[in-house]
Amino acid sequence: MAETMIKADNLVKIYKTKETEVLALQGLDLTVEEGELTAIIGNSGSGKSTFLNMIGGLDRPSAGSLFVAGSNLFTMTEKELVLYKRDTVGFVWQNNGRNMLPFLSALENVMLPMHLSSTQKKHDKAMELLELVGMAHKKYSRMNMLSGGEQQRVAIAIALANSPKLLLADEPTGSVDTATANYIFDVFTELNRRGQTILIVTHDTALSKKVKRVVAIRDGKISSERVLKEAYADRLKESGIDWRAEDTQDEYAVLDRVGRLQLPQEMISELGLDDNKVKVFVKDGQIVIARPE
Ligand SMILES: Nc1ncnc2c1ncn2[C@@H]1O[C@H](COP(=O)(O)OP(=O)(O)OP(=O)(O)O)[C@@H](O)[C@H]1O
Ligand SMILES: [Mg+2]
């Protein structure tokens, strides 16, 4: 049976500064199973990076609960956190400067974080990863000689260096052109096909249409979820599909543990719901939400 990879329950993150408090996550619930490829979308400031940073162990949550691959992110000691970051999660940032050392070669950068027993083993594994991301031919190039898209591909190899259980990527295609974004995205899809669990934040709506599961964050909570229609899931590898134009996913609103629901903003406007009260009733086996008379 697949292991639960991420279990966030009522997760809260508050950033405190001298003047203000920012409630970046406001009771977020999300469960991700082993082997899933999940995308997170949401407006700027909705809490996507905050959530990823909590999962990556880069920052501590304020309240709620968060388990990743069985580890409790609340009770972990600093020492356990160091091991967790090294062995359990791999992280790809949008700003790839954070992932690598500019004056080392691509190969050296991928070997650097490894903790395998011999240099030969590190070398072989690094070459395997560089091949996977299509960068084996540039193995001796210094990072600062590579293009943004090439650096990003090496960054993925670096994140995979220690075979993490979970790969996290925060807008990995944010600063590259469409062709490169597609290429990088295909690398993630292929990794997932091989069993890698991946959580990826993306602004790219075309790319998110190819993902089996897309969760949307609004104001620090999961508001809705889209699931790839079966017809498209089967055809994921076909290049003839116009992912930009087609309606590839079914959209669901998400009910939280205590039965709260966020209605899509468009529906609220469409019904002209300007009061904060709505009528809710069951009719013919369906729950109906209506404007009060
Ligand atoms: N270190 C911090 N200190 C104070 N506030 C922060 C900090 N990091 C994030 N925030 C605030 O928390 C909220 C969520 O930010 P976050 O970076 O998670 O958003 P995001 O969804 O990743 O946005 P974007 O799409 O722009 O990257 C924002 O209001 C942001 O200003
Ligand atoms: Mg962000």
* Spatial order of the strands forming the largest sheet: 6-7-8-3-9-10-11
**CATH homology superfamily name of the largest domain:** P-loop containing nucleotide triphosphate hydrolases
Structural class label: alpha/beta
Radius of gyration: 21 Å
The total of helices stands at: 9
Bound molecules: adenosine-5'-triphosphate, magnesium ion
N-to-C span: 50 Å
What's the assembly state of these chains? single chain
> Would you identify the CATH architecture of the largest domain?
3-Layer(aba) Sandwich
Shape call:
globular
Estimated helix fraction: 25-40%
CATH C-level name of the largest domain? Alpha Beta
Mean pLDDT: 91
Strand content: 25-35%
User: For the report, how would you describe the main beta sheet?
Assistant: 7 strands, mixed
Structure description:
The strands form 3 sheets. The protein has a 7-stranded mixed sheet. A hairpin with a 4-residue loop joins strand 1 and strand 2. The model has no long low-confidence stretch (mean pLDDT 91). It contains 9 helices and 13 strands. The radius of gyration is 21 Å and the shape is globular. Helix 4 crosses helix 5. The protein folds into 2 domains: 254 residues, P-loop containing nucleotide triphosphate hydrolases (Rossmann fold); 31 residues, no CATH class. The chain is 28% helix and 28% strand. It binds adenosine-5'-triphosphate and magnesium ion. Adenosine-5'-triphosphate binds next to strand 2 and helix 1.
Features:
293 residues; 28% helix; 28% strand; binds adenosine-5'-triphosphate; binds magnesium ion
